[in-house]
Design brief:
This protein is α/β, with parallel strands linked by helices. The chain is 33% helix and 23% strand. The protein has 17 helices and 25 strands. The protein has an 8-stranded antiparallel β-sheet, with helices on one face. It binds fructose -6-phosphate (F6R).
């Protein structure tokens, strides 16, 4: 959701800004722009639509000698996605340019105040208001840094901002509050960006900004002490401007992880990566030697110092919510912990009753989802122990939770979440086994051995899964609506299957607990309305066979995703399409079904010519509520 990039260094800035914006495209956007310093003057170029429109405009703009600038991809919040609302925004007097991700909640109040003092605005955005406010504050402040801080102290809401000004032509100022922003530290050059891939081709050394902090990066003339390189970046507290010391973190993953690697789309690459994701997720947490399974079980040292909670509340959004719903069953069964799962945006506004000893687990791939973060903060205010399950290292959820479990899935670039859900499920299974063991329960007999074998099983299966997915997708791509049904662990998978299909292909799809069909939704079934049933070989299988028959009795078309080997003595399946996955331990069957569902949606969307990696209206990291 909005991408920010800033650069100050020794290379031509504009091509770097454009490259960075391309790498942030996955976040979703509808317009873009850059501002750069050229011969001491501030230039701003913006365009509605794709980045190619901005690049076309820039081709006519001399920018070769510019070594400092900021860039932005905008996902509209205040004002239509038109060029005049695109970022960067210039302050009225042209003394600075600003880019912004987030929402300034009191922007109308500030706009009225500035209008009363003679300011006029060219856009509908809250960002232009903030730019003008900084310019106003500069009249009273002793430095640009102070003016930046004074204006930001007056802004309520969430923001990540970056600013350049002719007053300090080689410096980028940046700040964050509840929206992601970090610094990339290269040799004699610095970046600020919303996410690491924006500058990963140039440096893996990162400084994470915290809420309420200002960064000043790049060279500044007449700076006291030290060489420019040694002090290429500085951090200050927003409230007092006191300097902050922060270590540089070296990012483990490289450009390879952020590239398509020969795949047509990031989504496909990320689906195919799931065997490795599971392997890396369990490495070091499950004994490498099967002989130690009984004695040691699962280890999650991040949680060793915390008591096993009496109850657990899971808060999350979208796909992460579906992962939470899936994990709840195992946390109760193996962990012995009662679990409730809630949509974070509901939880945060309903003054929930939380019992003593109850912990709150926030699940978020990005660790920046505004609603999930707010739910976590609410839980903290209420005195609960908070846990985070995140993919992005150093993200807000990861930093603010009392303890964090990382999914270690590597960067997920495609807007639609795939491997992240797989990794969340794997960690939730480990968490269930870990807590169960600490409570003296024995649940994992033999399961760990099967878990270790799972990556190889999945890896061997994915190529043929993709072929089947493509074949069924072509036969179904004409449907206008889909039901997805599942029971037990397959119910969250049905929700996820429907979510993936609708977000990628824009085909209407609803996921239901199969037992709920007859309470209303079955009225919709007809020969034009296919039903995709996830029928895993577990104790729910005979029940879901009955549900399939109920749909077929109403002339509904049925696609069944199932597994070989029916040890549960259930009736024979009849369906238009029976997609058979290999047999495996029931607790692990979802790890096979999930990529099948993802591949089906992927193939439908690709067949229909949709923008698979950046579906319309969606953003990767939803940092506004
Ligand atoms: C769907 C999808 C979204 C995210 C949701 C939460 O494919 O990607 O539903 O799962 O926006 O995002 P995180 O996990 O980053 O909190």
């Amino acid at each position: 959701m909005c991408g920010i990039i800033g650069y100050s260094g020794h290379r031509p800035a504009v091509p770097l800004l454009i490259e960075g914006l391309h790498r942030l495209e996955y976040r979703g956007y509808d317009s873009s722009g850059v501002a750069f310093m050229q011969a001491g003057k501030l230039h701003v170029v913006r365009a509605a639509g794709r980045l190619s429109a901005l690049e076309a405009k820039l081709a006519a703009e001399p920018s070769m000698f510019s070594t400092c600038g900021i860039g932005h991809t905008r996902w509209a919040t205040h004002g239509a996605p038109e060029e005049r609302n695109a970022h960067p925004h210039l302050a009225r007097g042209g003394t600075l340019a600003l880019v912004h991700n987030g929402i300034i909640e009191n922007f109308q109040e500030l706009r009225d105040e500035l209008t009363a003092s003679g300011c006029t605005f060219r856009s509908d955005t809250d960002t232009e208001v903030l730019a003008c406010l900084i310019e106003e504050e500069r009249k009273r402040a002793s430095s640009l840094l102070e003016a930046f801080a004074r204006a930001l102290r007056r802004a309520r809401g969430a923001y990540a901002v970056a600013m350049i000004s002719p007053e300090e032509p080689e410096t980028v100022y940046a700040a964050r509050l509840s929206a992601p922003l970090l610094i990339g530290v290269g040799a004699g050059e610095c970046f600020v960006a919303s996410d690491i891939p924006a500058f990963l081709a140039y440096t893996r050394d990162v400084v994470f900004l915290e809420d309420g902090e200002i960064a000043r990066v790049g060279r500044r003339k007449g700076r006291e002490g030290g060489t420019d390189e040694a002090r290429a970046w500085e951090l200050f507290r927003l409230d007092s401007l006191a300097p902050i010391h922060r270590e540089v973190t070296r990012i483990e993953w490289d450009m390879q992880a952020a590239c398509k690697d020969g795949y047509k789309h990031f989504m496909l690459k990320e689906i195919m990566e799931q065997p490795r994701v599971i392997a890396e997720c369990i490495a070091g947490r499950v004994p490498a030697d099967p002989g130690r399974d009984e004695a040691e079980g699962v280890s999650l040292p991040e949680l060793d110092g915390l008591a096993v909670p009496r109850r657990l509340r899971i808060v999350a959004c979208g796909t992460s919510f579906n992962a939470g719903l899936w994990g709840a069953r195992l946390l109760e069964r193996f962990g012995g912990v009662p679990v409730a799962v809630e949509i974070a945006s509901e939880f945060r506004y309903r003054d929930p009753l939380l019992e003593e000893g109850e912990a709150v687990l926030a699940i978020s791939q990005s660790g920046e989802t505004a609603d999930t973060l707010a739910a976590l903060r609410l839980a903290r205010e209420k005195g609960c122990v908070t846990l985070g399950l995140c993919n992005v290292v150093g993200s807000s959820v990861a930093r603010e939770a009392d303890a964090v479990l990382y999914t270690q899935a590597g960067p997920e670039i495609s807007v639609a979440s795939t491997k992240a859900m797989c990794s969340q499920m794997a960690v939730l299974l480990l968490l269930a086994l870990y807590w169960g063991r600490r409570r003296g329960r024995k649940g994992e007999a033999g399961l760990l051995a099967h878990l270790r074998a799972l990556p190889a099983l999945l890896d061997g299966e994915l190529p043929s899964m993709r072929e089947t997915a493509a074949r069924i997708a072509r036969a179904c791509a004409g449907a206008r609506s889909f039901f997805y049904l599942g029971r037990g662990p397959a119910y969250p998978l049905a929700l996820e299957g429907a979510l993936k299909l609708k977000e990628l292909s824009y085909i209407h799809a609803e996921g239901y607990a199969a037992g709920e069909m007859k309470h209303g939704p079955i009225a919709l079934v007809d020969p034009e309305f296919p039903t995709f049933v996830v029928a895993l070989r577990d104790e729910f299988f005979p029940k879901i066979v009955s549900n399939i028959e109920q749909v077929q009795a109403r002339q509904g078309r049925v696609i069944v995703l199932t597994q070989a080997d029916g040890r549960n003595g259930c009736g024979k399946l009849h369906a238009e399409e029976i997609w058979t996955l290999p047999a495996c331990r029931p607790e692990l069957a979802s790890f096979l079904a999930l990529p099948a569902l993802q591949l089906f949606s992927y193939e439908v969307a690709d067949y229909l010519g949709k923008d698979v990696d950046q579906p319309r209206n969606l953003a990767k990291s939803v940092t506004v509520e």
